Amino acid sequence: MPLRTAFSLRALKKSDYSTNQLTRGEKKRNPRPRMPTIETVEGPDDAGVSDEIKFLEEKYVGQYEVDIKKLLLAPAEYRSRDVDQSWIQDIKHSILTAPGGVVTIFPVLFDTSIDDPSQFKEDDILQRPLYLLGGNHAIAAIRRAQEEEPENDSLQRYKKIRIDIYVGLSPEEGQLLGNLHNDRTKTKRVLFQVRRC
After folding, report:
1. What is the CATH number of the domain that holds 137?
2. pTM of structure
3. Which structural domain range is residue 85 located in?
4. What is the pLDDT of residue 108?
């Protein structure tokens, strides 16, 4: 099923783009159109957001950066799918071939024994479990690359990972969040980019 986009090329007016009938001077005055970007396309309003997603927002406590070793595989009832070892190999190969940095923020469930977001304390992040709900393939690939090449300095930038922490999710909500994350990144077979200075 093709991904829906926030814009349609048919929505561009004929006057928005150059044609072959224009002279060279006219083309300079009428530059090619710019593709719509995130800044120029209006997003959906709150009316289009499902109740499940609004409910998830109430359980969101913030974004943090943590050591990759701190992230654990979520209990089975919270996982949206099993981990595919061949996909981990592909991602690991990409990391080792062109290391850059992680461009994804991973959804995480804070300690399952806490069910109320008001009980969350930032100081507890280091002492309590953090369960990965989405991005298990990327995290597993990073860990595997670091294990196989511990002396590789380019892998040092993968030690800290940005996460969105949620508290008190039910297993169904955890699966929903994992599916949302995976759906958002499914077209990005390679989740890393090369930094060019």
Report:
1. 3.90.1530.10
2. 0.67
3. 46-185
4. 96
